Amino acid sequence: MHAPRALPPAETAETAAPPAPAATKRPFTAPIRQRFAAVLPREPLLRNGHLLAVSSLINAALGAVFWVFATHWYDERTVGLNYATISAATLLSTVGQLNLSDFLVRFVPAAGRHTRRLILACYVASIACSALVAVGFLLLVPQIAPGLDFLLTPVTGLFFVAYTAGYAIFALQDGALTGVRHPGWVAAENVVFAVVKILLLAVAAALTLFAGILISWAGALVVAVLVANVFLLRRAVPRHEREAPQTERPPRMVRYSTADYVGSLFRMAAYNLVPLLVLNTLGPAQSAYFSLAWIIGYIPYLLATNMGSSLIVEAAHAPGQLAQHAFRVLRHSALLMALGTVAIIVVAPYFLSFFGPGYGEHGTTLLRLLALSALPNLLVSVAIDVARMRRRLRMVVGLQLALCFLVLGLSHVLLPELGLTGAGVAWLVAQCLLALYLLIRRSSWLPGISEHSS
C-alpha cells in the first residue's frame, strides 16, 4: 500500500485533488489510506516529520524481528562480528556518500528542472567513493580490525563492498524522496528492505552461512534501492521538476556540501566507531549485547533526525519561517521524546530478554542510558539543522566534532572500567554537555530568540 502523498503548504485535504467521478471505482486500499491520513497532522512540517518517524518505527520494529531471528539462529560471537561488520560498512558508506543525503534534503526542494541531474550525479559519486573506501578497508583489515578477517574471502568481501555502496544509495534516495515531499515512500522502501532482509536471513541460516547476516542486508538493499528508484525517477522527480522551477547556484551548493560533509563524518564516526571499540575492548559477545541495545536506543534519535529533515525541507520553501518551524519542532517533539524515553526505560529488560537472557542481563542499563541521552540530543539535532539552513557551517562542524570527541574519548576511558554501561554514560554526558552549551548560547544559533523567550 502506498503512503499518502505529503501535501504542499498551498494545498488542503479538500483541494489537493478533484473528486473522483461517481462511476470510477476507488481502490480497496483507499479507505485505509484515508484513515491513516486522518491521524496525521495537516501542517506539512509536522505531517512529513511524522511520516518519516513512522518509517523509522516500522523499520525499527521489523529490524527487531530480524535480530530476534538472528540471535536465535546464530550464536553471540557470530552476531557480534556481523554487527561490527555492518557498523563498519555503514561508516564507510557514510564516508563514501559524501553526506549527499542531507545535501539532497537541503537542495532538491529548489533544484527545479535540474533535480534529476542533481540526484543522478550524487548517486554516481557515492557509488564510486563508497566502493573505493570499502576496498581500502578490506586491504587494511589485518592491521586495524583483525577480528573481521572473515571478510577477506572473495564472497564475503564482495558482499561487504556491495553493501557499502548499496547503503550509500539507500541513504541518498531517502534524502531525495524527502526533498520532493514524498516521505511516505521512505516508509515503503524500509518495509521492503526489512521483509526481504528477514527472508534472506532465513535462507542464509538454513545454508549455515557464517556471514549470513551481512549477506541478507546486502541482498535486501539491492531490492529496496530498485523499488524506490523506479518510483522516484519515473514519477516523483518529473512532477517535482514541473512544479518547482527555482534553482540555487552550484558554487554555493558546493561550498555548503563540503563543510557539511566534514561535520557528518564526525557524527557518523561517533555512531559507528563505538561498536568497534566495544568489540576490541570487551570482545564479540559484549559487542552483540551492545548492538541490540544501540539499535533500540537509537530509535528516539531517529525521531529528532526525521523532524529535522522536515524542518529543512519546509524552511527551504519558506526561509522566513525558520525560527517558527524550529520552535514548533522542539515543542512538538519534546513531548513525544519524553514519552518514548519513559517507555524504553520501563520495558528495557523485558524487551531485551526476547533476544536471549544475556541481552537483558548485560544491555538493560546501557539501553536506559541511551534512551535518556536522546532527550538532550533533540536540542543538539535541531540546532545543527537550524545552523545548516542559516549556513552557519562552523557551528555545524563544531557541534558534530565535539560530539565525536566526547563520545569516543569517554567511551575509551569508561569501557574498561564500567563495561557496556561506560558507553551509555559516554553518550549521556556528551549530549548533556552540548545541550547545556546550546541553551546558554541560544541567541547565537536560533534566530528571533528574543521574541520567543518573552
From TrEMBL:
Residues 1-25 are annotated as: Disordered. The keyword Cell membrane applies. It comes from the Bacteria. Keywords: Cell membrane, Membrane, Transmembrane, Transmembrane helix. It is a multi-pass membrane protein. InterPro entries: Poly_Biosynth_Transport. It is found in: Cell membrane. The chain crosses the membrane at residues 51-74, 80-100, 120-145, 151-170, 191-211, 217-237, 258-279, 291-313, 334-353, 365-384, 396-415, 421-440. This is Uncharacterized protein.
